[in-house]
Amino acid sequence: MMFKVKTPNLFCHIRSSIIQGTFTIVALFSSSLSFAVINGGAANENRFNAVGALKIGDNRSVGCTATLIAPNWIVTADHCIHATDGGEEEGGNPLPPEGYEFRLGNDFKKPVSKIKIKRWVAGPEVDGQTLDIAFGELSSPAPVSDLHLSVVPAWSLKWDSTDMQSSYIHVGYGVNEAFSSRPSPLSDKRQQAMLTVTANEGNALLKLFGNSQNLGAYIEQFHPQSLEAEDLDSIIAHADLGSGYYVSAWDGRGRKNLSDIQMPSGGWQDTCFGDSGGPLLREINGQLVVVGVVSKGMDRICSPMGTKFTIFSPPVQFLMKQLGI
């Protein structure tokens, strides 16, 4: 039986691949499927071993990405935990927690450990919307010592001006090739990409490009497929930020003139289908920590316009304390 992800709010876009380039991180509420890393590189180092993949139902490919933040807890995106059995054309029956499986290892199809989910805890509500973050309690603790891995703790940043231009690492199992009208197959392999945080309030795209004319010209030049999926006004509207979200885009320097915006020589890096729920990582005091999780892209298809991340805001931290994480 095939299972499908039910997206509870807003737009259905899950990025599961890393695309070469930098990211802009902006605060915004959204609901998506999973994303992957476009043009990303292999993430085989031991320090990434706490990042795993979610198997959803009987699907043979990765559903979302998740991170072990305690021996028996993972963090992912809320939109990843609303799958149905697909038994009805509209909706279907909710997939129970045990229908999800957390897989550790570089290769989704050859995991070194497989653990069922015992229960899901959705993120807190802010301004009437559930933040796109969720915590999963594992049916048994992950074999941390056997696998020689360290959990990656969740960390809350103040997101000041220095954070806005800092580089971060995203890790995911999603699509790793850019595409036109259809996504390329999921890689099912753990990938990484470097991203740059550029905004945390207001409208992320207008902050980056200055005005809608510059943004429209940029899209026409670098990714016209986005305008085939939706109009420019809709793309701009999606970029307005809400509480608890940040966006990361490949051009993190806030350039406002189209003539100054150049595609990186190696291509662009970003998240895509399958990367949803994957971590935004930063090294603090010599240790990798999770500062956010992938929510959705800046438009409905994988493009070089950035990705929204849900951060560990105070309401999320309060929920974690209640759960004993």
Architecture overview:
The chain has 325 residues and is an alpha+beta fold. The protein has a single domain, classed as Beta Barrel (Thrombin, subunit H). Helices cover 14% and strands 30% of the residues. It contains seven helices and 20 strands. It has helices spanning 144-147, 161-164, 204-209, 212-222, 225-229, 232-238, 314-323; strands at 4-5, 16-17, 35-38, 41-42, 51-56, 64-70, 73-76, 83-84, 100-104, 113-122, 125-126, 129-130, 134-138, 167-172, 191-199, 245-249, 270-273, 279-284, 287-297, 307-311. It has a six-stranded antiparallel β-barrel with strand order 14-15-16-20-19-18. A hairpin with a 2-residue loop joins strand 18 (279-284) and strand 19 (287-297). The radius of gyration is 18 Å and the shape is globular. The two termini are 34 Å apart.
Topology of helices and strands:
Layout: E1 4-5, E2 16-17, E3 35-38, E4 41-42, E5 51-56, E6 64-70, E7 73-76, E8 83-84, E9 100-104, E10 113-122, E11 125-126, E12 129-130, E13 134-138, H1 144-147, H2 161-164, E14 167-172, E15 191-199, H3 204-209, H4 212-222, H5 225-229, H6 232-238, E16 245-249, E17 270-273, E18 279-284, E19 287-297, E20 307-311, H7 314-323
Parallel strand pairs: 2-3
Antiparallel strand pairs: 1-8, 3-17, 4-15, 5-6, 5-9, 6-7, 7-13, 9-10, 10-13, 11-12, 14-15, 14-18, 15-16, 16-20, 18-19, 19-20
